[in-house]
Write a structure and sequence with these properties.
elongated; mainly alpha
């Protein structure tokens, strides 16, 4: 690609080309000014708080009950561990939603760049990915 635009090197046209097609400065600055940093910093302290602040209304219908908070706290401990983590609960207890919140939390806070999520089948995995992408 550099060869194709070699004639633009060191010129005002090259600078404008780079600004127009590669720069995200305007969008990034707009996003940074829209963030409530006090709320964000408080939410980053724990997965439970992150879930209350960012996941209710997106991935969860209501805040997690005490049992759900215990599960989220255990998931947060697992994020800093080297062992794989497996959730074993009955149907309808929120396993998928809690895992989606944990994956978003891990990526947004920089704890994990690439969380690995394993699901029962391809359709369920695609639904999980769609929910996680919707958060971003």
């Amino acid at each position: 690609m550099e060869r194709k635009y070699e004639h633009l090197n060191g010129t005002e046209a090259k600078r404008r080309f780079d600004d127009k097609y590669a720069s995200i400065d305007e969008k990034l600055e707009a996003a940074r000014t829209a963030i409530d940093w006090d709320r964000r910093n408080a939410a980053e302290k724990s997965l439970v708080e992150w879930t209350r602040v960012y996941c209710v209304g997106m991935l969860l219908d209501e805040p997690p009950p005490p049992k759900g908070e215990a599960i989220l706290a255990e998931m947060e401990r697992a994020l800093d561990d080297v062992r794989p983590y497996m959730i074993m609960m009955g149907r309808g207890n929120g396993k998928t939603c809690y895992m989606e919140c944990a994956a978003v939390f891990a990526m947004a806070t920089g704890r994990r760049k690439f969380p690995v999520v394993v699901s029962a089948n391809a359709r369920a995995a695609a639904n999980i990915l769609a929910d996680v992408f919707r958060m971003f």
